[in-house]
Amino acid sequence: xxxxxxxxxxxxxxAVQAHTATVIFIHGYNKSNLTYQALVAESIAPxxxxxxxxxxxxxxxxxxxxxxxxxxxxxxxxxxPPRADEYDEQAISKSIGAIEELIQxxxxxxxxxxxxxxxxxxxxxxxSMMVALQTRHHLGGxxxxxxxxxxxxxxxxxxxxxxCPILWCHGTADTEIPIALAEDGIAFLxxxxxxxxxxxxxxxxxxxxxxxxxxxxxxxAWLQTVIR
Length: 228
Description:
5 helices, Acyl-protein thioesterase 1, hydrolase, lipid metabolism, PLipase/COase/thioEstase
């Protein structure tokens, strides 16, 4: 990928009551933050009036998996399912930095890092994991929807002091990020994180590489417990 900035735009859903928590939701490969803003605004945000939602938008790049032209991507993808040796180090580093800047901005505005949750779908979930398990900030929670943890990123996560609750949601019929990758990621987390009791893994029978009402409902309920 080229030297284009990792993040080209941000949209938000503001808190409608006193702003006491923030969720940063990161979209997937070749997706738009507008899609997830609409889903959240309809299904989750009304029950969390104290939460500000932030939706960063990845810049468009020429990627290996999408040779037709530039598409929104946080890092290069060569194949789906992703190979174990795939790791676009330069772009990943840049994208981690962009999300860290969003976290730091919230902290500078007075938000306790333990009231900040990272969430994402697919490539956005992978990026959320890489940020959360390397950041020096103790976060309020981490949610992965149809994500994975790139094996080559794991060495920098082994000494993670992150203790936040983790929710991992995944469809059993996902062929782009198969559930085997989710199970592998969960096994890694159980070997790595200190508070294993805060890790929750939910499978959705028949769900492909997308979200559904049940998953969004579970995400909303989980958020109610970690940043109520």
